[in-house]
Amino acid sequence: MFNTVLHQLADPGNVGMILRAHAAFGGNRLILTGNEKPFTLNKKFRNTSRSMYKHIPIDEFATFADFKEQYASQNAHIIGIEITEEAINLPEFSFPENSFLVLGSERFGLPDEVIEQCDSIVKIPHYGQVGSMNVAMAASIAMYECTRGKQGIKPVYNRMYNFKSK
Amino acid sequence: MFNTVLHQLADPGNVGMILRAHAAFGGNRLILTGNEKPFTLNKKFRNTSRSMYKHIPIDEFATFADFKEQYASQNAHIIGIEITEEAINLPEFSFPENSFLVLGSERFGLPDEVIEQCDSIVKIPHYGQVGSMNVAMAASIAMYECTRGKQGIKPVYNRMYNFKSK
Question: What is the nearest CA distance from B93 to chain A, expressed in angstroms?
Fold first, then answer.
């Protein structure tokens, strides 16, 4: 079971899409950190999440350190998704049982002080001449890789078509 | 080298995000099929694509059959991303050299007549109680899996941060 942590995300549409994928991949909690004002569950968020906020517990912390303190005792493994020199290549990373996938803001990614607080940093390999990706797509790729190798869990296919809105 | 085919996508924001990921993963052509009116490269598309339309060739065909006819002689392997009973589980699928990843509209996914024209159908495993995903995220996961195992290609990390907009 994984959890998703979003640090200083600004676009409710991105948060909504991430929550939708988080639910599809069987994620546990969604955690929001570092926003100046509490995150608003506005219409754009509700629509892009396909109302998944009704099914997934959402926690919010003023700072990333507050989140860490809360979960430190629970064997949490905190994994930043970011491009750094030392980051592990995503296909080569084995996600521990209680993984927290951490993604940073649309404009700045993960700041250094958050990277320093992570247990591992993982990067998504790009092969193009221009390597840039929407944060929601990076999040969904990390969730896919985090769950793809899970033994003993049976994928669910029959409840809804893949891309249907309603 | 893969190509991406979008059948009847309605939201320019989704097409833009997909083009951005397509470029990041080193995709060749972006192909649009089945739209009643030619797709407009409007502001939302240009912004969400991060101007990648300047770097990636975009083709448009009135029907999926027109696209197939054009590419039939080029050893194209056409792979529909959709949930069907016979679809192959994405982690178990080996992408051939000249793959065309085909994704369907936000509301209806891939229609039967397109599925019948594909060489393979592949599905993304979900583990949640509610299995639904934005088409752009499904596309990016397919691109990731299509490129992750490529031998002899070196990933590119140093050009731009992961999620930066500019």
Answer: 13
